[in-house]
Amino acid sequence: MRILSFAFCLACALCARLVAHDAPPAAPSPSAAAIGVDDAMLAPAFWIAQVRDPDRVLLAPTEIAALNARILRDDPSMHDLRALPAMLSASQVRGWIQARSARPTRTLYDAQGRPVPAATLDALHDALALAAIAAETPTRYGLIVRRAALRTFPTELRVFSRPGDADIDRFQETAEYPGTPVVIAHASRDGPWLFVVSPRYAAWTRRENVAAGSAAQVFGYLDQPYRVVTGAKARTVYTPERPELSQLELDMGTRVPRLVDWPSGQPVNGQGAEAAYVLQLPYRQADGTLAFAPALLPKVADSADAQLPLTPANLIRQAFKFLGERYGWGNDYDGRDCSGFVADVYRSMGVELPRNTGDQAASPALAHRAFTAADDHAARMRAIAALRTGDLVYIPGHVMMVLGWYRGAPYVIHDTAGIVYRDGAALRARKLNAVAVTPLLPLSFADGSAYVDRITSIVHIGH
């Protein structure tokens, strides 16, 4: 799930705050920078040095493939596009849309802090065109052709929970990356928006973000040899010949087919290919249909010919490539949120996690330790003592990835809006809006309950 507002993050409408709480004596002082984190701790090498056997493989590629198959099969938040029938029923399409696009019942505010009129919300609901859904429609496929925002409603209107909050757009759901397969399930009443279903999400996106093609085209594209982006971002080279593929942004974990048999010495879009990989990228033709064209990815860009090995060292390195990136609710602001952050890190090593925190935390396909009110503080602390690098720690609406242990205390890296901590008798707030490193044990909520006592799940991926 996306983190909420100024404080640390609560699910959906609440804003959780972090404060220092019962820090162990051996841990760095909360009065230091960012609750006991100094500059040396802001480098991946520091944390790799704390891990025993940091290069051990947690899951082999065949095990990762089996895990992904279980997630796709067993997790109700996922969609197996290849298994959909040739025809979609009206109840199926309507169910997808109504699950995402329920008319808001609470007051929302626009970017100027004014309440959004009921008539505006009524018009957005009308734009869903639910009555226009046919009893049966052919299952149509497509590929995302650029980084695409997925929205609650077919609109770019930004809305917020309260005046003055201009960061957390409640109509922003997530973003999908170029080459993501989708089913095109429906169109808005006025036409510019499509309701699409990806393997991990279902929501509205602008029509120009999608190129429609046959199932053979879409799935054939996914089944080719590829390069995978292993940096926070990579971009194709500039090309005036193909503006739709020029400096195309590719986020971490994005897989792009590589034209391995491209003739030596043959230019790509007017440029020699000796210092670059020749990729095959989808684009949208004037009539909205899918086509493919070559583009260049510089060899100096952070990419690989396969997903990185799933090791503690790689988990740390990949997470730190996002350090300091601006927080973006629903992968807004050209960035990502807490669950988007951990999903992209794990995707670069081949693991396809569900999109939102609640689904990740409870996925029946993942090994997780679930907590209830029956788990007392001692039981929770025993679970904390067993934390390992890469473990995912969940509270309602938020997830953090364990970096490791330092001076007897666990530390995490996470994408967070802000933190609040106690300095003596006072509470001091720091707005972060970024990927940050913090200790785990000092954190608590504004009501004084310890963070550890509100953990809902710990997910461990690997042996």
What would a concise description of this structure say?
This protein has helices spanning 44-48, 61-74, 90-100, 118-126, 215-222, 312-320, 338-347, 357-362, 377-385, and strands at residues 87-89, 136-138, 140-144, 148-151, 172-176, 181-187, 193-197, 202-206, 210-213, 226-229, 233-235, 249-251, 255-257, 276-284, 290-298, 303-304, 367-370, 392-395, 398-406, 409-423, 426-439, 457-460.
Overview of this protein structure:
Helix content is 17%, strand content 27%. With 463 residues, the chain is α+β, with helices and mostly antiparallel strands. The protein has three domains: 39-59 and 310-460, endopeptidase domain like (from Nostoc punctiforme) (endopeptidase fold (from Nostoc punctiforme), Alpha-Beta Complex); 78-211, no CATH class; 226-304, SH3 type barrels, CATH 2.30.30. The protein has a six-stranded antiparallel sheet. The protein has a five-stranded antiparallel sheet with strand order 8-7-6-3-9. The protein is globular and about 60 Å long. The protein starts with 43 loop residues before the first helix and ends with a strand.
**Overall geometric form:** globular
Strand content: 25-35%
Tally of separate helices: 9
Radius of gyration: 23 Å
In total, the number of strands is 22
Oligomer: single chain
The largest sheet is: 6 strands, antiparallel
The average pLDDT score comes to 91
Low-confidence stretches: 1-33
Strand order in space, largest sheet: 17-22-18-19-20-21
* Class from helix and strand fractions: alpha+beta
Q: Distance between the terminal alpha carbons, to the nearest Å?
A: 26 Å
